[in-house]
Task: structure prediction
Amino acid sequence: MASRTRRHGAARSAREGSRRRLPLRLLLPLLVLVALSAMLMLRGYVHSEILADHRVQPPAATTGVPEKILEGGPVIDVRGGRTESVSVPDHRLVLTFDDGPDPTWTPRVLDILKKHDAHAVFFVTGTMASRYPDLVERMVDEGHEVGLHTFNHPDLSFQSKKRIDWELSQNQLALTGAAGVRTSLFRPPYSSFADAMDDKSWPVTEYIGSRGYITVVNNTDSEDWKKPGVDEIIRRATPQGGKGAIVLMHDSGGDRHQTVQALDRFLPDLKKKGYEFDNLTEALDAPSAMSPVTGAELWKGKAWVFLVQASERLTDILVVGLAIIGTLVIGRFVLMLLLSGVHARRVRRRRFRWGPAVTEPVTVLVPAYNEAKCIENTVRSLVASDHPIEVIVIDDGSSDGTARIVEGLGLPGVRVIRQLNAGKPAALNRGLANARHDIVVMMDGDTVFEPSTVRELVQPFGDPRVGAVAGNAKVGNKDSLIGAWQHIEYVMGFNLDRRMYDVLGCMPTIPGAVGAFRRSALEPIGGMSDDTLAEDTDVTMALHRAGWRVVYAENARAWTEAPESVSQLWSQRYRWSYGTMQAIWKHRRAVIEKGPSGRFGRVGLPFVSLFMVVAPLLAPLIDVFLLYGLVFGPTGKTIVAWLGVLAIQAVCAAYAFRLDREKLTPLISLPLQQILYRQIMYVVLLQSWITALTGGRLRWQKLRRSGGVSAPPPGADGIPPQRRSGAMDGRPVG
Amino acid sequence: MTTPPYDPTRPTPAPAMPVPPLPGPTRSAPHMTAPPLHPPVGADTAVPVAPEQEQARRAPVRDRYFDLLRAVALFRVVLYHLMGWAWLPVAFPSIGVMFALAGNLMARSLKRPAVQVVRSRLRRLLPPLWLLGAVGVTGMVLQGWGPNEDGHPGWWWFHLLYWVLPLSDPPFAEGLPGIHGILGEDWASELAGPLWYIRAYLWYVLLSPVLLRALRALPWLTILAPLVLSAAFQFGYLNLPGERFPSALTDFSTFGACWILGMAHQEGVLKRLPRYVVPSVAPVIAAVGLWYAFREGFKTGYDLDSIPFAQAVWSFATVLLLLHVSPSWSEWPRPLRRWDRLITLLNSRAVTIYLWHNVCILVAATLWDQLWGFDVVYEHVPWLLESPWPVLVVAWLLIGSCIVWFGWMEDVAAKRTPRLWPDGGKPSAAKQPRARAAHRG
Result:
């Protein structure tokens, strides 16, 4: 907390300045998000989950197809106005493999071909070539020819010319990126023999010819994709009477072990019969159909393949991340349920006692900076306390007469101390120096206590090992949506997280809105420090390191008003999350120290870091994959999985509400909270990370007061409603 | 239009056309897949159409937010009846919104004695319908429609009474030839298409006193009852004989929840909920409606209108949200000020626009089709002939002329001085003194 603003004018200009710079503070998270979505889009794209079109044209009339094509060979050349077709000479076989490359089967096909010294033609799709560029390169290196089979295998007769052009160029781009060549061979998806050309497919063939490609169909179709058995594949693939042929096989699209086995017999058998296995241009004694690519085209191709590879790898990493976060989230929920149950059971036992009842008077410190609207309610609620107290209001250079208001009340036992504006830690230290009693309660100038709050809060000091106690901060203004969300968050934070931390002995924060300290514990560590933005977390960690116990008092309720606008909420959470990071960093040496400090450093600190700083960073993956699943499928499963996680959250929340004896109705806003609210918190955390990593400094962001009246705490009669939305430090979790 | 009176709140009016003037004609007849939408009939019953007069009397100020909703709803109705896009009623469920607004006004009026309120509502609703009937039925008879149409002259005459008091759908002639080049075939069914809204509206008005009492006694049960009824119809738990009765009850159940929500808004039922409830619950309800629509095969030509339960649920959720948001503008927010006159006009003539828009669309489409006769156009800009957008422009021009020809009836029905173009643009008698004072000052 650098300072609670020296001057009002300065504060405003800072805020406006930051608003103008808003793009900057949002820029990096936004860039990360855009890059992530782009990568996922790319993945969806090369996995044929976008633009996929699985329609197949039924047979049509053949009146528009030239006779000599229908009766001609399988190599159709209609480039530059020609209408020619060529057959493979006798005793030559051209094996063709469609739809690859496939990471499992293509290498085995290539091995068999190599073993029998045969060449073949691979018609690769752009998606597969982009994903497995090494295999394409190997094909070219081993003397095979590569042809185009479109980018993602649609029936071209359904597609526009623009789409056909795109299919070809994108396929070519992938080929160039993978092997540095381009090809003039093309095989249309769902094609078969030359005499199967019809009025739908012929115009496409003509168009593709006009783009400079030779269309290659086949003479014999092994129909290996039907997995008819090795013998059947061989029978179908073998041409009659020593004729030459182009044989259709597949190295991708499913289990191809029959194809591989068939090849291993087919090749030696036919070789014995005098057949040669060449690639297409060798068989036709023509110049190669492939030509090397250089220059910009080559780099474009390489860039494309690189991006696809990156997106594949990124997705793999994200999936691992999702698994980690899923385990963490669910593990945390289970742990919370268990430990909060343990805690509630322990402290609610009929005979439970911290130690001898604490009845000695305590000092309550109320640091206040421009709290004119709320301070009266705050102080009056303290005076109504059923525990003997001394109240010290420390006015931190307010300009709105906060101090005068308190003095004007003329209440007994309430003292006002004025200081020049120096920040909240300084105010607390000054109050500490003036406190008459050994136990000190700290609260905010805009929080309202119940009459029993102070008594409940100090009872744990009956145990001499307890150095500090966290109370139960509750949201008063939970009527609005954003209020209800924070209410859920607070109830869960105080009843699950805090009980868990209590049991584990690593409570990271005493909330500034309601906490109590032993002065004898605070003094050795130098009181409050303004090293971090979250002095409450900082001091709590310091107490842990000094060997004190920090516990949670569930019945010490304090009512506070949560921020009512997104921007206020934003600055509050930014301060918390960045402050927590600062505090963790400040106390990092605890990890290697001995004694209680080391115990905290090796158990508490990693635990807190994991759940407060690292896990939230991965949590957006849940949303990323929710979106990916919704868009690219499987939509149904995605929704069910999401609803499952939601159900777990709902169970935990309901349990927390029951522990706190709260009405369950606000939980109806839980689904929307999962869609809108959580994400804001992630971005805030991401922004804190970026600030931390770039070494940025955060100005103290005093939240603007809305003057809204909070609901009077139910069941707490006589507590005046209070208004505010200041720098509230209820901190449900951290 | 000489110097307008000084009025700091009113910027110079922009003569904005509501229609995006995009190119493109359509040769297809207007889509009339589903039941038509409704006019904010009587929308202004409780709140007078002329804002100036109202203010002068210090009656409740017009809620400009509701005016905006009503204008958008009306514009969307016309757009949808021309385009037939399935997603339009999803994007903005006009009918539900218009019934909700009307229900809201009805509840407001019912502070006075019920009989008086119902009578005044009917008085404002029916005369514009009679005018449509006078023109329409005359036209049908001229084209050969008569008592012997179905061989039951007695029934024909009896059903004709529904043109006077539309307790059920007014009858119309089927398969009329039209007027070549101007009025398309089967125009009477287009003309009568939107009338179900008037019929439903009439029933809501008649039942409102009862509904209001039920609402006060058991608020949420009353609001949800129509949805339950709608589900009963959709899932076949309830089958009624005949045609007129089930169709009336289906419409009632589909939009009843919206009407009652409007009343509930006026009664403050929604305000009694914590503010987080509606935004949390409405999206879930809406999702259920949408999910059901898709399950039933939602597409163009088979949209929400064909799936009444989905329509009911989706409209309910949307109206719930719109009413929750309701900012109650007593004057226009700055960006909307330029639309003031247009929205005022649409609100003042809502019934007329609703009643006549379908005929206007038919005429516009028929006229536009005439262009196919010109080879030059056909050969050079065939896309213009196909585009629906010019038809939309023509249709709105025709609607504008209907406002001039028939709109005055709404003023007569409201016992006001008839006006041709009530867009609130001219200084009214009520305003002038203030204006003069400003000048003098």
Residues 51-440 of chain B form one domain. Residues 1-58, 427-441 of chain B have pLDDT under 50 and may be disordered.
